[in-house]
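Hi support team,

I'm filing this because I wasn't sure whether my run with MRU finished correctly. The job status page said complete, but I'd like someone to confirm that the output block is well-formed before I use it downstream. Pasting the exact inputs I used:
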Amino acid sequence: MSNETIRPIVWEGDHLELLDQRILPDRYEYLTLTDADAVAEAIRDMVVRGAPAIGITAAFGVVLAARHRFAEQGDGWKAAIQADIERLAQSRPTAVNLFWALERMGRLIETLEGDPVALLEVEAIAILEEDIAANRRMGELGAELLAGSNGVLTHCNAGALATGGYGTALGVIRSAFAAGKVERVYADETRPWLQGARLTAWEMVQEKIPVSLLADGAAAHLMSQGKVQWVVVGSDRIAANGDVANKIGTYQVAIAARHHGVKFMVAAPTSTIDMQVKSGKEIPIETRAAEEVLGVFGNRIAAQGAEAWNPVFDVTPAELVDAIVTEKGVVLNPTAEKIAALMAS
Ligand code: MRU
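And here is everything the job wrote out:
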């Protein structure tokens, strides 16, 4: 299987199939979802994760909700569906792609009369396909910057699994590897959900891209050895000033990168840029259950009696970011002015 064919979200016309990312790489299984509540639960429970993938999934959740509401309530569907959209919006707080996709579906809903399902389905499919196209464009643009890198470091999973397909950070890495610009990927294992060890490593192995896993705490040492020239990561939300929210641990990677003269790239579609938040301070950071840190997949490893703090994202200040790569273009050394110009283009 290649990044061309890894599809975390499959729309089957009357139901949604989600690749269950909680059990990868041990098992490759899809879950069948038929209503919006199941979709919200799947997002909350990490069946599907990664900012663009969450947004696309929620868009299909709206289609499922519309089918149920129209069948039950006829013309009353428009009022009734607002509760479904609200439950989808409550599933995870940080990735702005979720709210972006729900708002886009909401704008279409306002214009609809009669049976809404077919047109909402077309919109959700467009969101999915536009995401894949954006990733391919980012792959080309980002790969140009990576010329001459023998190693790159990535954190979490910003691959095909985190998007409609192809990936953001891993899309850049994949394009760069295909062009002979990268020799090896170093992947932080990414505690506590191990998206790096389970998902990024799996994607790279499928692609036959050499991948070395490292404990999250090994990243600065890796840089001190001169093994990587670039860090390439995705994002859950980019503020109007270029501050970047991403998986917890990204911030310390960015600090280490600047210290060692390693360049730091964020690859994200413009649907990840939130012009409503001025800086990273305003980005809501999700905190998840302490058990995720106190154990590994349900097996307690921490001393009994210990508590845990589990913020799952952090904010990297814009001044530590060398490049933001979007489908609309590349912003070097991001500032509020440059981001505004990109979004207006
Ligand atoms: O908690 P997750 O797995 O949803 O976190 C995902 C990340 O932090 C990704 O890096 C980000 O969403 C970008 S995905 C293209």
